[in-house]
Design brief:
The protein has 400 residues and is mainly alpha-helical. The chain is 66% helix and 6% strand. The chain has a 5-stranded mixed sheet with strand order 2-1-3-5-4, sandwiched between helices. The mean pLDDT is 89.
Length: 400
Amino acid sequence: FFGAKAAAFIFTVLLFLGFYLILKRYSNKSILPFFLSGFFLSGMFLETVSSPRPMTFVILINLLAIHLLINKRHWWVFFTAVFYSLIHVTSPLIIVYAVIIEAVRHFDKKEFDSKNILFAFLGVLAGFLCHPNFPNNFIVFYLNSILVPLYTIKTGVLELGAEFFPLNTREYLLGYPVVIIGIISILYIAISRMPKPRFETKAFLILGMVFFVLSFTCRRYLSHGYLIMLTAFSCYASDCFDSWKKTAKSAVVLAAILFLMLAINSFNAIRYNALVARVINGHYEAAGRWMEKNIPEGELIFHANWSDSQYFIGLNPKDDYFVTLDPVYMYNKNPDLYKIYRDVSFGKTKDPYTVLKDTFHVKYGYAGKNYFNSLVEQIRKDSRFTILVEDNFGIIFKLI
């Protein structure tokens, strides 16, 4: 547990330092602190980067890749693309970045650097080919980076985590207030007199707007593109800075008040999320440790939510779990079996005992009460089940 926390902290610090260096390169130093503080003004973003997941490092690589593409550092683009492909399935994004940046360069400067696109493509391809999981990494990319985004639009086909669905208006305003304020500010400035933005500003703006539009289909695009948007806002403000000097003092005061309010909102969100995480994680930890002590080694344990095993597998590694990867893998392998699994989990099967015993061949199982209370009630009413442990959040049961 300590190692996971230390890893999350280290990579978040690296991300913050990288974000600072990017802002320093493209922003006016007088306004840099305001946009740098934006890193801390989204509780949802901080929750994302506080987890020991590759996403934190991926966001940093994205910022670096955009910087290299803007400055036409071809070989660095190539090696960054190779490294990106070795650690995450979203690496083809660097090719998309190259195409967009070169399109902006063409319309802004009447130039087009095809080497940027070529080196990005070759780097991604080389990373895929030398990946230790080759050729299965192509299947992983297809399932996670193509099918899952499609399933976020075509709802009901596959059960996905909350991060794959859009935020409602209130969640968006409270979770990413700087994004909304930035968009409104850009629209206001755009209709008033302002200097022509730099090529770099246009590149970051277009990329940021792509993520902004995509965020209405999936909240994950927000965490992926949040710092790109902040960089775009900072570049835009820097281009307008000279024309704002007359009102600089009043603008600084208003910005300071606004950022203080946003900081309080972000702090409250972090505190709330930490409290919820402590309670939920405490429940899973207690359940996992109970399994480690009381369930025989080598048993296959059913769990109603596909993500339950992510908690249990480290606490009770001696047993096997029903689903240990994203559900798209099970769905792709056997859609009919996946449907049976979901029907059992949500209490839609008339005889869950027979399905669990004869179809899935399990003796033990776990069901949470948050979404799967119908299954919990079926188990409670069926004498062929024994509830071994129960608390306010879930049950561990056994088939007699």
